[in-house]
Amino acid sequence: MNLAAHIESPLYRTIQREAEALGIEVYIIGGFVRDILLNRPNTDIDLVANTRGLELAQACARALGVRKVDIFKTYGTAHFRFKDLDIEFVNARKESYSSDSRKPSVEQGTLEDDQNRRDFTINALAISMQAHNYGDVIDPFDGIADLENKILRTPLDPNITYSDDPLRMMRAVRFANQLHFRIEEDSFQAIKRNCERLSIVSMERITTELNKIIMCNKPSVGFKLLFDTGLLHRFFPEMVKLHGIEKRNGIAHKDNFYHTLQVLDNICESTDNLWLRWSAIMHDIAKPPTKRFEEEIGWTFHGHEDVGARWVPKIFARLKLPLDHQMKYVQKLVLLHLRPIALTKEAISDSAIRRLLFEAGDDIDDLMKLCRADITSKNEAKVQRYLANYEIVVEKLVELEEKDRVRNFQPPITGEDIMRIFALAPGREIGIIKNAIKEAILDGIIHNDYNEAYQLMLAEANKMGLQPAIGE
Ligand code: ATP
Ligand code: MG
After folding, report:
1. Could you tell me the distance, in angstroms and rounded to a whole number, from the CA of residue 316 to the centre of ligand 1?
2. What is the C-alpha end-to-end distance of the chain, expressed in Å?
3. Is 337 a domain residue?
4. Is 118 a pocket residue for ligand 1 (Cβ < 6 Å)?
5. Residue ID of nearest Cα to ligand 1 atom 10
6. Is the C-beta atom of 158 inside 6 A of ligand 1?
7. Which ligand sits nearest to residue 35's alpha carbon?
8. Rounded CA gap, 374 and 100, in Å?
9. Domains held by the chain: number
10. 30 lines ligand 1 (CB under 6 A)
11. Is there a single domain that holds both residue 142 and residue 9?
């Protein structure tokens, strides 16, 4: 196979010329080659030279008018940006691993050595940039056939490949999900056998791959593979515990693992927001510890939203996910995920809707997406009934928000106002009055309005024997 037609632009011809001038060989290798053949966009070009790769990088940068070249001496790599491309140069290497680290010791090698150390046959493809065979694909492991058959296979013995660098197991699942490929059977078995080796991989690396899985169109595919290989058990035991059903008096509850994956797939159709996707993963995470069988009702999971929300920080910390606003957002959605549908169990009062709007704030639309995604059942009539209820809540929300504007409700009278008006130092009275105003507005007793709030404040203060120090 020859891909010269794909590498005709001046950039590639410059690299070819500069390599020729240095008297060295250079190849494009890895993901970029794979993606040409899969017709996927890719802006990372990895080049491997048989020797003097860093000099080649500098010569190319000079010839292309690129000023800034980043040289990483320890890794023997050089990188620069050209237009929207990231171009990286390395020398061909040969790697050897020790059992306690995924960082190999490295020595100068041949192109063949370099291809041997790649994770998958489809990632080991190289394109020659030498004049005599410009564009020829060098495919020692039948990667092209694997691309056509949509198979993920390791170039060498999968037991060794995965044990050497266990991150490759996460990459296998990620590529399987992303590219819609199948993990070849020997590889699959090797991952199962080596899943415990994941313990030598840093959590950050694992999570990077996990987030790539979550950003796939249908992440359930990746999560099922993580579960079936035993990888998920290594870093996300809470999710594993969602798996399985229990039956009592002939009544079974649904399998919350597969339910969660269905909710995740559903929400992926309406959002690319990684954190909303994480909310779907976490929404029922505390169902196992809150599960009870009640004779009259059947299975219940009372309070799973509270416990789940409390778990979010510790799970995020362990997975090295961000602990600031993203975590808070996931926590809030987990806490509130039952509220919209629960509202429909009684006659929906304006006050309940107002409270929901107030608590969800600007995240109300995302919360409603999560609720919509959460409606899964094999029972079609049930789904239809829930959907109808859901629509009623959506309508009510829109109606009330237009009328009352409580979504980003700021109390019309602040704590500072109260202190000034009554000449008070900070103390519990202020909180009591503020809260009374908020409650009255949310209950619809007064409008979200300064004068009405002022009158209520006077009445509340009076109950505590307080008189305004100034008139307004
Ligand atoms: P993507 O950029 O979509 O994540 P990619 O295949 O380009 O996919 P990179 O992480 O950019 O992945 O790596 C570039 C190339 O380096 C890969 O195609 C593969 O040949 C090699 N590679 C990356 N990580 C590993 C690894 N852990 N073990 C072996 N080879 C690897
Ligand atoms: Mg890449």
Report:
1. 26
2. 85
3. no
4. yes
5. 31
6. no
7. 1
8. 42
9. 3
10. yes
11. yes
Distance, in Å, from the CA atom of 392 to the CA atom of 369, rounded to the nearest integer, reads: 14
Amino acid at the residue 243: H
Q: Which domain holds residue 72?
A: 4-149
Q: Does ligand 1 lie within 6 Å of residue 155's CB atom?
A: no
CB of 165 sitting under 6 A from ligand 1: yes
DSSP H/E element including 175? helix 167-179
Ligand 1 centroid, distance to 376 Cα (angstroms): 37
Structural contact between residues 264 and 281, judged by C-beta atoms closer than 8 angstroms: yes
Could you report the per-residue pLDDT of 125-164, keeping only the tens digit for each?
A: 999 999 999 999 999 999 999 999 999 999 999 999 999 9
- For residues 181 and 125, state if they share a domain: no
Question: CB within 8 A of 277, min separation 6: which ones?
Answer: 214, 215, 219, 264, 267, 268, 271
pLDDT tens digits, residue range 16-65? Answer: 999 999 999 999 999 999 999 999 999 999 999 999 999 999 999 999 99
Closest ligand to Cα 95? 1
Which of 187, 212, 235 marks a domain boundary?
A: 235
Smallest CA separation from ligand 1 atom 1, residue = 31
DSSP letter for each residue of 94-121? EEE--TT-S--EEEE--HHHHHHTSSSG
